[in-house]
Amino acid sequence: MTRPSLGTYPCLCLALTLALTPLANAAPAAATGCDRAALLAAADKYVEAQTAGSLDPLQDILSANFSYVENNAATDVSSGVLSHALAIDHRRSTADTTDCATYTELISTGGKAPGTGAGAAKPYVIGTQLRHDPTTLSIVLIDSVASTTGSWSFDAAKTLSHVLSEDWPAIPADRQDDRAVLRRAADAYLDIWSNATAADAVPWGTPCARLEGSAYTGRGRADDSCKAGLPTNHNQAPNTRRRYVIDEEAGSCDVLCVWEHMMMAADSHEFRLEGGKLRYVHTITVCPGQTCRL
């Protein structure tokens, strides 16, 4: 099937709604359910597209009027990170079969993308949610937080080394946490900045490691905790416009949001729970056009 060239895709109302209004906080009206294998296959195609710096690998599964959001702003995909060929050093994808979405974590330390003829690119750490039409499974939204040199605590090589030291195996069905448990844990954590009692609702576990950009709290000890460095001032601006991808099999809840107290930054927080307890937190934070400061 022939589609328009890269630069002709419009950024339509769905992207503007998700990126620019609080409506993104609302849960879907009804759960429809999507095939896990199909969702993850689409995520694979997205990774191919990012490697190529081209939408071609996605052509057969893109909605004709799909929307592209980068760092919380509706963006022309031809000027976004997806138009740059990246050598991918790490990728991990999760699938939300209830809300027909995926989340993919990508790390590129800046090497030359294979088979593209392109030179070495800037390094990136990217978190991307894909949203699918529940009937056709076509992609209706690509929603990314793309960090690079100058972003909060950015060092792609260091981030990669920490990620590769972690273990995120699939969780057996009889040990999986309910999606409501995963979302409550994520929301409680993200509420800490604006709610003095929110930390009490977080299911803290040990060991737990937080990867904040390239800064890592894990020391390889049994008492490692994700509480380290969290704010004591709970009167800060809230973290808003939350968009969720929840995967019970992965024990994961990813949240894209606006990190209001840090210069309205674009942010991804992914949480991994095991046995109902917080085990890992991965964050990606970008202040577009600015140097992030607290």
TrEMBL record:
InterPro entries: DUF8021
Organism in which the protein naturally occurs: Phialemonium atrogriseum
High-level lineage: Eukaryota, Fungi, Dikarya, Ascomycota, Pezizomycotina
Record protein name field: DUF8021 domain-containing protein
Signal sequence interval, chain numbering: 1-26
Residues covered by the DUF8021 domain: 176-285
Database matches in Pfam families: DUF8021
Taxonomic superkingdom: Eukaryota
Keywords recorded for this protein, A-Z: Signal
